[in-house]
Amino acid sequence: MARVHNFSAGPAALPQCVLREAQDELFDYAGTGMSVLEMSHRSEAYRAIIEDAEATLRRLLDIPPSYRVLFLQGGATLQFAGIPLNLMRRRRAGYVVSGNFAKLAWREGCKYGDAEVLASSEASNFDRIPELGAVENRAASGDLDYVYICQNNTIFGTQFHTLPDCTDTPLIADVSSCFLSGPLDIERYGLLFAGAQKNAGPAGVTVVIVREDLIANGPARADICPTYLDLRVQAEKGSMYNTPNTFGIYLCGKVFRWIEQTDGLVAMAQRNRAKADLLYRTIDDSDLFQGTADPKSRSMSNVTFRTCDAETDEAFIAYARERGIEGIKGHRMAGGLRASIYNAVTMDSVGALTACMREFEASRG
Ligand code: PMP
């Protein structure tokens, strides 16, 4: 059966070899006589799976021992609450509102303390990453518990290409849609987190990487923080305060191994750069398609664009579907078109999309 070119924003394309391996192992995992789906999370076989997933991720990102790695549930969204509950010790934090998910995180932060908007690009419909000078100045005052950013804005197709310098104020980042697309300097962050369903695996796993000293004293709001969200408890229990998403973590581990076997994150970033360059070049060379993000803020993961009007956008989506191209409808908040070109989306798929764009444009005369 032919597989489509899948440009979905998440859940998104997974590496085919990972799917095949999981298929092979589904009925009887490594001679255990059972599927990972049926296996106790406390079993020796499962312990090896989760430990290998963490160890591989640590190698890939060169995560220092002073950081804890957690595999949690509740999506990236639950961490919008988990972060203030754990870290807003003086009840004052700063948020950069660069898109809808950053805004949702800020709103959640407002429930627990003084969540200041340090910069926003909402006035221009989140078409860019805001200027960071004011953010850095505010961070330098030293009275914020953290500065929060969403590093890649999945809906609007923008990305931080440099991180704000927050001096000693911990930087907290939602990296959901750029996680594992290239190397990260972990020590720049106090905490980073990602829903897995883009580059890391299936939906239902959230990876949290947190500097240990930030959680060592327990949650800032121990009185009201649900135990599940208590990052110290989760770290002490090895992400097993309760039953984790066993199968999801197993698949993430396979994706981490795949990245390692395909030469790691530097090589991954090079391939992603080549894919993004081809797609943006095709958009920029076209008289019909146009990019919607400010060129300086363009995302390497989610490429947002449109045609001359909504009707033509729809016609292009239908034209592409006939050619085996799926998932290019823009998010309802942004409209237009979006191609998510995560790690498992091949250059071949991006080539198919760009060829389709050129043919569509030519067909209109
Ligand atoms: N942050 C970003 C950047 C996202 O792209 C998404 C979802 N696509 C979320 C947060 C919300 O993630 P989840 O659905 O896992 O809660």
TrEMBL record:
Domain called Aminotransferase class V: residue spans: 5-353
Coiled coil regions, renumbered to chain: none
Family annotation (Pfam families): Aminotran_5
InterPro entries, A to Z: Aminotrans_V_dom, Aminotrans_V_PyrdxlP_BS, Pser_aminoTfrase, PyrdxlP-dep_Trfase, PyrdxlP-dep_Trfase_major, PyrdxlP-dep_Trfase_small
Any one Gene Ontology BP term: pyridoxine biosynthetic process
UniProt pathway: Cofactor biosynthesis; pyridoxine 5'-phosphate biosynthesis; pyridoxine 5'-phosphate from D-erythrose 4-phosphate: step 3/5; Amino-acid biosynthesis; L-serine biosynthesis; L-serine from 3-phospho-D-glycerate: step 2/3
Keyword Ubl conjugation: no
Subunit composition and interactions: Homodimer.
Name of the protein: Phosphoserine aminotransferase
The species this protein was found in: Collinsella intestinalis
Native organism taxonomy: Bacteria, Bacillati, Actinomycetota, Coriobacteriia, Coriobacteriales
Gene name as annotated: serC
